[in-house]
Design goal:
The protein is of the alpha+beta class. Helix content is 51%, strand content 17%. The chain has a three-stranded mixed beta sheet with strand order 1-2-3, with helices on one face. The model has no long low-confidence stretch (mean pLDDT 86).
Length: 129
């Protein structure tokens, strides 16, 4: 099975959906932030390992605590995943902090600042001469 096959894409989506449900509804660990989302999942083609990218609406400390809580609950999460998703193997899950949303917000602010600086510094002269 190729990495980007239709079957693997479908498995990634199903595992992401089920992980989100398990994290949101089944885990009672106080370290896990209530605004936690699974942004992406990459299941290996052999179905042995899985990387789950986790995003938290909050600061870096909340993200670190959430990742720690998820790592400690990995056995429970894996057992719940095995009962809901019918796969030959239940993958070993690695939780990875996803900084892409925070990065996008930061880049958007930088772009806005550059646009404001450009508009305020623009004198209307043609510099093409």
């Amino acid at each position: 099975m190729r990495k980007n096959s239709i079957k693997n894409t479908r498995i990634n989506g199903e595992v992401r959906r089920e992980l989100s449900e398990i994290i949101r509804g089944s885990i009672k660990d106080p370290r896990i932030h209530p605004m936690t989302s699974v942004t992406a999942v990459e299941v290996a083609p052999d179905l042995k390992t899985c990387r789950a990218y986790i995003s938290v609406l909050g600061d870096d400390e909340a993200l670190a605590r959430t990742i720690e809580g998820l790592k400690s609950a990995e056995g429970f999460i894996r057992r719940e995943l095995a009962s809901t998703v019918n796969l030959r193997n239940t993958p070993q899950i690695r939780f990875i902090p996803d900084q892409s949303i925070a990065y996008g917000i930061r880049m958007s602010k930088i772009i806005d600042e550059v646009k404001e600086a450009d508009e305020s510094g623009h004198t209307g002269e043609d510099l093409s001469e």
